[in-house]
Amino acid sequence: MSLFSKLFKLFLAVVLMPFVPMVLLLAYYQEHLKDNILETHANLAQIVSSSMNQHIEDLGWRLSFAPHVTDALNAKKSPVPVLRDALSANPDFIMLAVLSAQGKELYRAGDKQILRDVPPLDLSGDPVLEELSKQNKLSVSSFDVVDGRPISEFIYPLPNGDFLYGIMSFFAFLSRVQEQRIGTTGRIYLVDQNGFVYAGEYQYRPEFDAEELRRAFTSGERLIKELKTKQDGYVGAYASTPILGAYVAVLQLKSEAYRSIYYTNIILALFLLTIATLAYFGALTFAERLGEPISALSEAAKEVSKGNLEGKIDEDIGWGEFKQLISQFNKMTADLKDYQLLQLQAQVSEMKEHVFRAVAHDLRAPLLGLQGYLYILQSGKASKEEEKEYLEQMSRAARDLSSLLEDVLDVSRVQAGMLSPRKEQVDAAALAKSVTDALAPTAAEKGLLLETDVPPLTLKADPKLLRRVLMNLVSNAVKFTDKGYVRVCGGQDASSDWLAVEDSGIGMNEQEMKGIFQKYYQINSDKAGYGLGLFISRQIVTAHGGELNVTSRKGKGSRFTVTFPKEKK
User: Fold this and answer.
1) CA 567 to CA 569: how far, in whole Å?
2) Where on the phi/psi map is residue 180: left (φ > 0), alpha (ψ -120 to 50), or beta?
3) Contact 473, 431 (CB under 8 A)
4) What does the alpha-carbon distance between residue 251 and residue 408 come to, in Å, rounded to a whole number?
């Protein structure tokens, strides 16, 4: 084979072969871009879901007329005028009724068409009523469509023992939401759990396949990467809503959503075609004059194939377009080095996933326990004593599950920067007393002295978050103390206020104190827990502008101190 042929083939190999990993990287990057586009749809769906949640939460103050209904009932008068006034003041209400304590309808008012279509209400024997009367809280039912209007029912217990029943329309809310657009074809839809799309007469609704939407909801993957209709394909995302059985879906034509990516593909294809053409004619023209730069490129390519991305070719040995090629080759090795860093980051992410799989494993244990006890209780074969024991075990498993979920959610809030204290004046002594009262049975069971020594002290803090910190610190002290005492104390000086939890427990050495505030760090793996409590507690205190520190001696006990700087007046 002639030198010309060798140089020609070598030139083509050096120029074209490095494009293979670049094309693979671009393909990966485009998939990442598609996911980012769909994440935008998912964020919009979540925003609409949150707005709907706020809309339902606002229902509480819109029921301010309920006391007037009770007054009318106590005075043996008809509350219908009050109900009509409430309907006039709340256009979203299309029917209101009063049910007796047994669930039978006493009075009603509302839209005439609805009154004709809805038969007299009789919820006798419904266990929901008994539960609502005990908890004294509002209950909102699942999503439904009546006469083309999206509705949801609600029941609210009245002080006299009767119930306020209502049908609330979401038509006005959804009309505002569905006016929003993403591009030209992207729209927001309300979909029930069976995949049927609700849309007003003014909103264009493609013939979505209900079964495909239902499978998307049950898959647990919030991104919808392909949804076909008879004419076109759609992509988007969904989010669950506070209304049972309803989802918010943001859907857009696939061709429009990925238009920028398609244009990029065309440009890249033209770019690669241009490079290939230049390489071919450059090889024909300059093959005999490229000995030195090709030799340098050959050696550099060998180093790259060995995984060495640190070396660079001297651009001065090239000329013309070949000098630019050397520059691009150097840039390519830098890009490949960046790609290696991306792979390393992916490995780190995989390690994080491993940790969360471990947490998921711990979630599975109480769930399986609950299922087992439920199966035994449903079989009816357990005695009264066994039923009581199983219910206690189920309650304990539910508390463990709730505690772990709360910790995981708090870690997510911390990492997302969503931890924002709502500060107010807090009575530190009363707060400490409430925490020790809650944990007193556990301490008494171990024979520990649990006491508070907090003087009259007022802190500017979020009472819920501060209680969480104290609860974590005191429960940890009780857990790691086998005999002696656990004490909550407090005080102040010229520059700060402080609360401390001290114990006579197992204590810690210097190495353990360094890692105690890290996520998932546990000194004693035999003790129940997930190593999140102290991490969350320090983040809460830091968000308040304070500090959480520890002093300890092995075998002598520990002291955790929360310090808040005094606010300048």
Assistant:
1) 6
2) beta
3) no
4) 31
Q: In Å, how far from its chain's centre is CA 268?
A: 37
Residues in the chain, overall count: 569
Nearest Cα neighbor of 486 from 528, 514, 457, 452 is 452
Q: What is the pTM of this model?
A: 0.41
Helix (H) or strand (E) holding 155, with range, is: strand 149-157
Q: Which of 181, 211, 186, 185 is nearest to 196 (CA)?
A: 211
- Sort strands 163-169 and 93-99 into parallel, antiparallel or unpaired: antiparallel
At 547 the pLDDT is: 92
545: left (phi over 0), alpha (psi -120 to 50) or beta: left
- Number of H helices and number of E strands within the chain? 18, 17
- The 3-state secondary structure of 414-474, one letter per residue: HHCCCCCCCCEEEEHHHHHHHHHHHHHHHHHHCCCEEEEECCCCEEEECHHHHHHHHHHHH
- Residue 183: strand, helix, or coil: coil
Answer for the pair 297, 330: CB distance below 8 angstroms, yes or no. no
- Give the angle subtended at the CA of 99 by the CAs of 93 and 100, to the nearest 5°: 160
- Please give the C-alpha separations between residue 100 and each of 123, 142, 230, 472, in angstroms, as whole numbers: 9, 22, 51, 45
Q: Is 356 helix (H, G, I), strand (E, B) or coil?
A: helix
Q: In 3-state terms, what secondary structure has residue 221?
A: coil
Cα(156)–Cα(168) distance, integer angstroms: 13
Strand-strand pairing, 485-492 and 449-453: parallel
CB-based contact 210:195 (threshold 8 Å): yes
Residue ranges of the chain with per-residue pLDDT less than 70 = 1-16, 18-19, 142-143, 146-148, 200-204, 244, 279-296, 304, 307, 309-311, 315-322, 339-340, 343-373, 375, 390, 393, 396-397, 399-419, 519-531, 568-569
Write the DSSP assignment of 243-258 as a string of letters. STTEEEEEEEEHHHHT
pLDDT at position 348, please? 47
Positive or negative: CA dihedral 350, 355, 359, 361: positive
Whole-number pLDDT of residue 411:
55
Are the C-beta atoms of 333 and 317 separated by less than 8 Å? no
Separation between Cα atoms, residue 203 and residue 378, nearest integer Å:
48
Look at residues 113, 104, 98 and name the one whose alpha carbon lies nearest to residue 155.
98
Q: What does the pLDDT read at residue 358?
A: 47
Residues near 278 by beta carbon (within 8 Å), at least 6 away in sequence: 321
CA–CA gap between residue 441 and residue 434 (Å, rounded) = 13
Q: What confidence tens digit (pLDDT) does each residue in 473-526 have?
A: 998 899 889 899 999 999 988 888 999 999 998 888 888 888 788 766 666 555
Report d(CA 175, CA 169) in Å as an integer: 11
